[in-house]
Specification:
single chain, alpha+beta, Arc Repressor Mutant, subunit A, 2 domains, two-stranded antiparallel sheet, 9 helices, 17% strand
Length: 271
């Protein structure tokens, strides 16, 4: 009788580990198919995107459904993400700190633009600098952490006011809580129109309007609920910022804010 050749003792374990890892990867790929734009998907659609047979995708979805990670839409019977994902992501979302999340993005933004970048938050009537990466250039604009911006024309304040309701903005400007030059009803209405543009473009600029020597650019950061929780800002001396270069700074700032938004679990705006 021929002797039976046995596989090494750990070969079965390694094969099992590989199969387990493959199943896990496939399950993650299935979950990644869902998006804000396409929250409902059928088995055939998912199978074509992940490159798996429909029967395999069906088995994966059945397992995910058991764990409440996906669920069926009652009307279409197609699949959508389940509430079980919130339980999984909850501890992470609870621990997210805007400063920690934004810091590496701010460093890259300053390296890219060679200007001072900052993260600011909103108190309800002023924006506050909570993180900053100074420009490496000798002449620069910086602000101490904790600096408050209360002028309506400040780029960061514009970003936050653009997310407020018109009545709230009118009240803030008329009362002087947020400073605005000659806040007559007509001028306030003009400013409200400007805020509509800020909201539509996802970026605000201050080209020497609050300080003749300074240029500011800001863009909003959204959390996983879609709420504006902060803004990324760039500050630079006006003498070296042409209108053309201002467009570059605005694009870089908007891109950075979008990346912080994604790191916060939100969805970056589409071009």
């Amino acid at each position: 009788m021929a002797a039976r050749t046995e596989a090494p003792a750990d070969s079965g374990t390694k094969a099992g580990d590989a199969r387990g890892a493959s199943v896990l990867v496939n399950a993650v790929e299935v979950l990644r198919c869902f998006s804000v734009e396409e929250p409902l998907l059928g088995v055939t659609e998912i199978a074509s995107r992940v490159g798996l047979h429909k029967s395999t995708v069906s088995r994966i979805l059945a397992t995910l459904e058991q764990e409440d990670l996906v669920e069926r839409d009652e009307t279409t019977r197609r699949f959508k993400l389940g509430l079980g994902l919130i339980a999984v992501a909850g501890p992470l979302l609870a621990e997210l700190d805007e400063r920690r999340v934004a810091y590496p993005v701010l460093r890259e933004l300053t390296e890219r633009t060679q200007e001072t970048s900052a993260l600011v938050t909103w108190t309800g009537s002023s924006s506050v600098c909570v993180e900053q990466i100074p420009s490496p250039q000798q002449v620069k604009h910086t602000s101490p952490l904790g600096t408050r911006y209360t002028t309506a024309l400040s780029a960061s304040v514009q970003v936050f006011l653009a997310a407020e309701g018109p009545e709230r903005v009118r009240a803030l400007l008329a009362s002087g809580v947020v400073e605005y030059p000659s806040p007559t009803p007509d001028r306030i209405e003009e400013f409200l129109e400007r805020l509509k543009d800020v909201a539509a473009e996802g970026c605000a600029t201050n080209y020497g309007e609050t300080s003749v020597d300074e240029v500011g650019v800001a863009a909003p950061v959204h959390d996983h609920r879609g709420n504006i929780v902060a803004a990324v800002m760039l500050a630079a001396p006006r003498y070296r910022i042409t209108p053309e270069h201002l467009q570059f700074l605005a694009a870089a700032c908007t891109d950075a804010a979008g990346r912080v938004t994604v790191r916060m679990g939100g969805t970056a705006p589409q071009d």
